[in-house]
Specification:
Elements: H1 9-42, E1 46-47, E2 50-51, H2 53-59, H3 66-74, H4 83-94, H5 111-132, H6 146-153, H7 158-163, H8 170-184
Antiparallel strand pairs: 1-2
Helix pairs in contact: 2-3, 3-5, 4-5, 4-6, 4-8
């Protein structure tokens, strides 16, 4: 046992290595935070280290797609949608296909299709802003649940909605609908 205060070269090297590792992690988190602030400032959510009214709106959205949600709201992309169309469009923000399926999902035509196209354009713009800042947080909207959400919100029986889609289980339906309701609330 070494007396207090005396250290050998190995102890010092270990301590130095740990300090460098902690400093690297801390500065990495700080750099990421600064980059996020740059993007939020460029989009008008922050102004000179102060949160703007739009920033306060963003702070009230609890979703992985929070920035995309607020940008779509700011652009009025969902203003003219009825309840079933809104559920269909917003489902693209919470649904994530777990299968490596390359097929294009069915979506209701008209207003839903237009809103999903606009949402994807907004996602592309935000993704580019993130990439310029060397960030990548936003996931591309996935319209794979849009048809089921629209049909159910339009009043079709759950048994029919589930029966027409062999890949959609009742558990998956309930999970996505809960996330959808949480986001819409």
């Amino acid at each position: 046992v070494r007396p207090y205060g005396r250290r050998n070269k190995t102890d010092r090297a270990d301590t130095d290595a740990l300090e460098r590792k902690v400093a690297g992690k801390t500065s990495s988190i700080g750099r990421t935070f600064d980059r996020v602030c740059e993007v939020l400032t460029a989009l008008g959510y922050l102004k000179r280290d102060a949160v703007t009214a739009t920033g306060r709106q963003l702070a009230r959205v609890y979703s992985e797609a929070d920035l995309l949600v607020v940008e779509c709201l700011r652009d009025g992309q969902v203003d003219a949608l009825n309840a079933a169309e809104l559920a269909s469009v917003v489902s693209a923000l919470v649904y994530e296909n777990r299968r490596p399926d390359e097929s294009v999902p069915s979506v209701p035509s008209g207003a839903v299709q237009s809103a999903l196209t606009e949402m994807t354009r907004t996602w592309s713009r935000l993704s580019a802003a993130e990439a310029d800042a060397k960030l990548a947080f936003l996931r591309k909207p996935d319209p794979g649940f849009s048809w089921a959400a629209w049909r159910w919100a339009s009043g079709e029986p759950l048994e029919k909605v589930l029966g027409d889609d062999q890949d959609l289980t009742a558990g998956d339906f309930v999970r996505v609908c809960k996330q959808l309701l949480d986001l819409l609330a």
